[in-house]
Amino acid sequence: MSLKSVNQILGILQIESRCQEEPLLKLLNFWPEVVGAKVSRETRPLSIRRHVLWVATSSAAWSQNLTFGRYAILLKLNQRLSQLQIPALTDIRFSTAQWNEIAQNQTQETVCEHPQEHPSYLAQSNNINYTSQIAQPVVSAKMVFENWFRTKQVQDSHLPLCPQCQCPSPPGELERWTICSPCAAKVMERQ
Fold it and tell me: For 88-170, where are the alpha helices, taking DSSP H only?
């Protein structure tokens, strides 16, 4: 029995992981072309293990529908992979298991990248310093509420009013829905 050092075993594992990552990275480039834009938005290839592609889906319904059509997708993928001289896949597995992690990462990136694109975004306008309005130390719950209320009044004093409920609303919401977001939610709920 020959024993291998830990360094040799780690080296082998690194080579194996690179061999699995490279086909996946290439597959990610043409995934939307193979499955289509709509399916691509609802899926995300995660890994290739032992010639099986693992794909996260946004819902169980997507997993089930794509499982029924996996052989057609597999045929198209293997045609593209053979052009790149990558070994063929034997199967595809669809699961919702890791979709929430992917969705969270994407929304965190989106929110962090461009917060000014959100309809509720308020730019610092009129050079108002909100923190200077709160000078009293917090002593009781009543004082906390009063401080909060005064701060909100100062913040909302320059905002346009919602035509439906007459509440101060961010301009982005009014531009997008012509009413504030709570009113828009009520309208959508009724539909």
Answer: 99-113, 141-156
Q: Which two tokens stand for residue 57?
A: 């889906």
**At 23, which CATH number?**
3.30.300
Q: Are 16 and 88 found together in one domain? A: yes
For 47, phi then psi, to 5°, come to: -160, 165
Does residue 130 lie within any of the structural domains? no
Residue 50 Cα distances to 19, 55, 96, 125, 163, angstroms: 11, 14, 20, 57, 60
Total count of domains within the chain? 2
**What's the pTM value of the predicted model, to 2 decimals?**
0.47
As a whole number of angstroms, the distance between CA 19 and CA 50 comes to 11
Average pLDDT over every residue of 132-143 = 62
Q: Which residue has the higher pLDDT, 53 or 135?
A: 53
pLDDT at 57 over 50: yes
Question: In whole angstroms, what separates CA 139 from the centre of its chain?
Answer: 41
- The answer to whether the beta carbons of residues 57 and 96 sit under 8 Å apart is yes
Nearest to 100 by CA among 153, 66, 56: 56
Q: Are residues 54 and 108 in the same domain?
A: yes
User: What's the domain range around 85?
Assistant: 8-113
